[in-house]
Structure formats: structure tokens, C-alpha cells
Amino acid sequence: MNAPDTSARTPRPIQALPDQLISQIAAGEVVERPSAVVKELLENSLDAGATQISVRLEEGGVKRICITDNGRGIPPEQMPLALARHATSKITSLHDLENVGTLGFRGEALASIASVAVLTLTSRTADAAHAWEIVGSHNAAPAPSSGAVGTTIDVQDLYFNTPARRKFLKSEQTEFGHCAEVVRRIALARPDVSFSLTHNGRTIDHWNVSEMAKRSAHILGEGFAEARLPIDETAGPLRLHGYTGLPTASKARADGQFFYVNGRFVRDKVLVHAVKAAYQDVLHGDRFPSYVLALELDPALVDVNVHPSKIEVRFRDSRAVHQFVFHAVQRALSQTSATAHGSVPSPLPAADSLNATPAWRGEQASFGSLLAPDYTPTFSPSPFGSRADGGAGYGGPRFGADGGVAQSTEKYGAMFRDGERAGGERAAADMALPQTSSFSVSAAAMAQEEFPLGFALAQLHGIYILAQNVKGLVLVDMHAAHERILYEQLKNALDSRVAGEDMQVQPLLIPVTFYADAVEVGTAEEHQETLQALGFDIAVLSPTTLAVRSVPVLLKNADAQTLARDVLRDVREFGGSRVLIERQNELLGTLACHTAVRANRILSLQEMNALLRQMEITERADQCNHGRPTWVQVEINALDKLFLRGQ
Q1: Across-strand partners of 468?
Q2: What is the pLDDT of residues 380-414, one digit of tens each?
Q3: How far apart are CA 265 and CA 182, in angstroms?
Q4: Alpha-carbon distances of 64 from 44, 56, 117, 120, 179, rounded to whole Å
Q5: What are the φ/ψ torsions at residue 26 (nearest 5 degrees)?
Q6: Res 30: pLDDT
């Protein structure tokens, strides 16, 4: 595109712009659309101490925006100044500007709005005999009017004098949606204030004065109320409080995220990243958590004057704020275990799942023998059968003559044991799962909920563990649960390695060799230090061959070739240092998923109970590292309803 030719223009002298034009230019920044008007006026009402606010809109706010509050009101002699540019009662000096404690402070909102719409300001103070009204701009004179204590600002025909701006507005419903979102954001921050929202004469929302718990449930929905964790932490001048959603209640969009700094809704990169980093252990992929969090700190430690709409802030010590928010949210999420959180979201009603496609496929083990009371499993389908060529790669399950898979549960049960080394030291492999000894459960122990996940009854379709606890029935996804356990153990092992302790590794008696392309061979050569830090010894035997000589003890029962390829892929994609620092959670999640017990593994009751016990002592055990629930509780009264008991 060619640049405009300015050579033929007649030079113009420098001159001061007309006052009206200055206000219209400012309106371009402040009054982006009707929702921006709603935001500015609501903030003024809250700054005036209002406890009741009514918002009335017509045609998405384009035709009319009328906001009434019961705040302090404006004396008649100050009403013209309220409509003048850069006139405010909120700051008087640079010190005030650096310690802003109000939502509004620039003193240009009303003047900007009045320059692009027809504005009527009606207000009454507590000591006034009646209300006063001013129409248009600061050049008008207040006139007596009627009205209760507080202020009403009526904005009509937005952009009536700037049609070019008006044509850029969207449909009525879209503009109303933006206005409603602004009201919801502000209402979330101030549960001590009642709000009502009306559109085209119809009441859309009304929120009475309440607590944050009830207000957030009302606005974000009962789903959020049933799957949230409270946060209230303080460190020096910083305080973070509110609610953060469970990973199992994540959404496909980030429309349930509300963060406030000193009562002001913000979209700050530092804060968003801190929360996202806290969820990285429990939520992967394109899922977004919901949360309502409020950060309070000394106004002098945050600059709110860095954006015309005041939606961005700048912290004096952003690193300290990031670490505080990150650790506060992470600590809350780490308590999502069976012993710390009562339940996870309930399963779908039976009617909703009748036509669902089963998640499991492939060979199904025989369950007929489970009907025998003295049944003891002998064969356990394993995803890691030996190959016919003698290699160690996965070649599919090996079936015995009787149709079972030739691997006893003893091998899998070894992962559960709490055995001892010859010298009395605990074996590193025992980090995987607890002992498989029988459990003797007294009625008192069950009543006191010493074992929140109860005790196993049976296995369903080789996928789910059915257990009974004091509340009713517990359903456990054994792969997801074992994946979380292994993930936490791998992370702790790597953290110990970074702290200078030795990671327990398992040398392979016969190294596993496999064909590798040039990129994989080059990655193995270049990132030997990173691979060893992760517990892998991968040697280059030839330009096309790699050998796995050792793996982390926790992964010793997995397919060494598959694990090696996964590690090399991630190291190559993200770089060695980034894998250890930024991407270790994704890598460990992949390794845990490969190693966790697969569907169709027949477990004994002792092995099932061992898995339940380990879940109870594992942080974040309510979900796997992909954010899926590991267990659900079906209470006894829900079962009674299914069978119409008591009706």
C-alpha cells in the first residue's frame, strides 16, 4: 500500500484542540463499546460507597445505559466538575497516584462519555433536601430534581454524534453479552453489594448481598460450587483468597477465570502464568481451570495506571508476586487427595451412559471363575509380553495353553510390596506401591473413616475397582490412579536427583538394543547428561543402533525401547535443560502413563486394596496428571433412589 502524499497539503499552524474534540479523542480510549461505559459507571458507584446498584440497558446498551446506586451522591456545586475532564476527588498529588486505592481515578470517564452520548446526571447527598440534575456537559447548570440518596447516570444514544464509531458495534445481543460479562465480573469482586441487571425491561440477573462462596456459586454455577477448593494465604504484604476449581472440572474455554487485584478485575500475564504453572501437575492439554481469586497488597506495590481501561497492572516485584500466587494455588491443589477432599464430581446418571461407547477394547479376560468364592487369580494380562524374536519390545500379550496370559500376578504384586533389602534398607522398587498383606478391618475403623476409599469388592471389566466405604460405593479407574501414583513418585525421584541425591536406577542384565534413525542417535549423543539425570543410560552402538543399559527403578517393568524413544523425542523437541526445568512434568506424565497398570489386568483383592491405600497417601490423587478423575463416590442414598427404596 502506498503512503499518503502529504507534499501538496497546505502547512497548518500548531494550535490547541477544541475541548469537545479532546474529549472525543479520549472517548476513543475509554469508551470502546457500551460495556466500557458500564464498567466506568459501576466503578464510580463502588468508589462512592454504594451497597445497592441497578443496571438498566436497552438495545445492548447502545440506546440506553442507566445505572442507579445508593452511594454518597454529589453536591450540586460539584456536579459540573464531575463532567469536566481530569476533575476528580480521588487523587490530588503524585503520592495519591502512586497509592491508588479506588477503582477510578483519572477523572475523564464522565467527560468522555458525555462527548459521545446524551448524558444526564442526577444525584442527591444525605444532607440535601432534594436531588439535583445536570444534562449534557460541564457547561450546563444543575437544576432541582427528584430522587433518593445516591446517583443515577442515564446515558442515551451512544455515538449519536460519531456515526463512524457506531457502525463498528456488533449486534444487540453481542453488545449486551459484553455488558452482562462486565456486571458479572464486578459483582464477583463485591459480594457485599447487591446488583440487578435489566435488559429491554426484562430482569436478567439479581444478586443479593452474600458471601463470596454463594456469590461465586450463583455466577459461575453449581458445577463450580461442587468442585472448588478454598484459598486464603498471606505472606508479608500479600494476601490471596478465593476459590480455585478442581482439575476434574476443567473447561474447553478460559471463560471461567476471574482474577482481581485490590478489587479490580485484571488480565495480567504474571498472574495468569502463575496459576497455569500451578495446574501443570494436574491438568494437561487444551483444558482450562476455573477460578475466582483476589490478590490484596499495598497499593504502592502495584501500578494500575498502565492501560487506558485499567485492565492491566504492573507489580513492583513481579517475581515475588508470581511465586506467591504459584505456591498458594499449588498447595491448594496438592491437597486434592482422598483424605483431604470429600469427593470428586459424581459420575453421569445411568440413563446418560446407556449408549456410550466403551473406552476399553481388545481381548477381554474371562470373569466366570470370579464367581467361585475361593477364586485366586493366576494369570494377569500384561501389555509387555516378550517378542518372538527374543527382543524386549512389545509384541502383544502371550497367551498360555489355557487361554490365560503367561504372567502371574506375583510380578505385578511385586510393585505393591514393602519388602526389605538384605541389610534392612528399603528397596527403591518399593516406592511404587505398598505391601500386599491382607487387611483386617474393624467396624470401628470403617466408621471412623480411617480408610476413606474403603476396601475392594471386585474388578469390573478389567478397568475399574469397586470398593465399599462408609458412604457407599467407590469406583476407581485403576490405570488413572496408578498413573498419578507413579507420576508423583517419578517427580519426587527427579527432585531428589536435582537436590544432589542419587536417583535409583535399574541396570539391565541384557541391554535392550533397537534400530534408531540418525536424529535419535544424535540426540542420545548430545544429551547424555540430561538422560542420566532422568535415570536413563542410552549408549550409541552404531550409527543406526542404540542400547538402553539402565532405566529408573520405578520404570523397570516397562518397555525400555518405548520409554527410550519417548525420552529422546521430548529431549530433542524441547532441549535438555528445558526438559528438566520447564517440560519435566509432560515428560514424567508420558513415562507414568506408559508404566501404569493397563486395562484388562486381573488383580487380586490384596492388590486392589494396596492401590487404594497408596491413593490415600498420594498428593493430588483425585485426578491423573491429564486432569481426569481417578475415582468417584456413589453414596448409598443415590443407590437407594435407583432401586426406589423407601418410596
Answers
A1: 455, 473
A2: 333 323 333 333 333 333 334 443 333 343 443 44
A3: 9
A4: 18, 8, 9, 11, 12
A5: -65, -35
A6: 64
